[in-house]
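hey so i finally got around to running the thing on that chain from the lab meeting. sorry it took forever, my laptop kept dying and i had to restart like 3 times. anyway pasting the input first so we r on the same page abt which one it is
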Amino acid sequence: MIAQSAGASADVTIDPGYPVTRNDPNLTRRMVPVLEAVAGKGHARSADLVMGSEDFSYYQQQIPGLYFFLGVTPQSADPNKAPRCHSPYFYVDESALVLGVRALARLTLAYMGQ
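ok and heres what got predicted. didnt touch it at all, straight out
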């Protein structure tokens, strides 16, 4: 209708995007202690819901999944003011990557029952 009102025509395709990314509650309960053991008590916490979606959600439709964020903002920076990941000013404190690798390894071992 909008295109017609301007004397034009339009073909519109609506892409529904990715499904909602939802952590499996049982898997999350099982893995939070693992993350706390790696990061330290009080450093693994639930985040507020976000509107973003991720192609990871397709995996979660098939098997229980756990999607988590790794804080990579330098300790000297205010996380509320730090540039977000799609900003050209985004900066990663690379020492956090060691913690991320450790977390993924420990989560994998815990998931496999070791």
